């Protein structure tokens, strides 16, 4: 178990080759499209999803940075622009115990990841067990993602070749919620990995 979150700069090796650019190019070459999540997700459709590209070298870098054997459950690239749906506050608890976000944006529109606290409950992460009433309220408030219901607890800037690793139940979202980029060159590109620690698996 990690302590809330960790930040790793110089995530991908640059000592011999420009690995971050190679990984970025691999995602761009593979392309992006729409993905419709399952019924438990808060969004009806996600734009700019990329499932091709060099995931292996990113996973290896994740293991080098954290010192664990990471077992990915789901990995993807994500390109967001002003045409992308507005971000919503959410938890990745359903996907795996841990989440890694690697920032691959080369332009000034690097954005950030914000962590949140739900004002009414005081929760900063989605508990494993919730009564139906609280679960329904959180589901509605995550879908709305209104500042009336949430407050920011921390922001991690999405600097190029930085990785953010955190406990997946934490409430978070990309920030700002509406991306100012207009296209591939000015948009925000990240790699996301939901993973398990092999030593913690039964």
List key phrases describing it.
3 helices, single chain, alpha+beta, Jelly Rolls, seven-stranded antiparallel sheet, three-stranded antiparallel sheet, 202 residues
Explain the overall architecture.
By secondary structure, the protein is of the alpha+beta class. The chain has a single domain, classed as Sandwich (Jelly Rolls). Helix content is 18%, strand content 32%. The strands form 2 sheets. It has a 7-stranded antiparallel sheet. The longest helix has 13 residues, at 132-144. The model has no long low-confidence stretch (mean pLDDT 93).
Largest sheet: 7 strands, antiparallel
Q: What is the overall number of helices?
A: 3
Helicity, in percent?
10-25%
Low-confidence stretches: none
Topology:
Elements: E1 5-8, H1 19-30, E2 33-35, E3 46-50, H2 55-66, E4 70-80, E5 98-103, E6 112-118, H3 132-144, E7 150-157, E8 162-167, E9 172-175, E10 188-197
Brief summary:
This protein is an alpha+beta fold.
């Amino acid at each position: 178990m990690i302590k809330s979150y960790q930040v790793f700069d110089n995530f991908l090796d640059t000592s011999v080759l420009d690995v971050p650019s190679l990984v970025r190019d691999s995602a761009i070459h593979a392309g992006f499209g729409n993905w419709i999540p399952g019924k438990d997700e808060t969004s009806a459709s996600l734009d700019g999803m990329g499932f091709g590209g060099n995931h292996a070298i990113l996973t290896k870098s994740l293991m080098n940075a954290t010192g664990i054997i990471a077992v990915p459950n789901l990995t993807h690239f994500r390109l967001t622009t002003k045409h992308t749906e507005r971000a919503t506050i959410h938890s990745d608890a359903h996907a795996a115990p841990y989440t890694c976000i690697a920032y691959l944006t080369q332009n000034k529109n690097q954005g950030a990841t914000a962590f949140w606290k739900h004002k009414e409950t005081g929760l900063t992460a989605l508990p494993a067990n919730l009564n139906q009433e609280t679960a329904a309220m959180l589901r509605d408030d995550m879908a709305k993602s209104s500042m009336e219901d949430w407050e920011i607890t921390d922001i991690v800037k999405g600097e190029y070749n930085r990785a953010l690793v955190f406990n997946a139940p934490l409430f978070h979202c990309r920030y700002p919620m509406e991306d100012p980029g207009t296209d591939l060159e000015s948009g925000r590109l990240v790699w996301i990995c939901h993973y398990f620690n092999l030593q913690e698996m039964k």
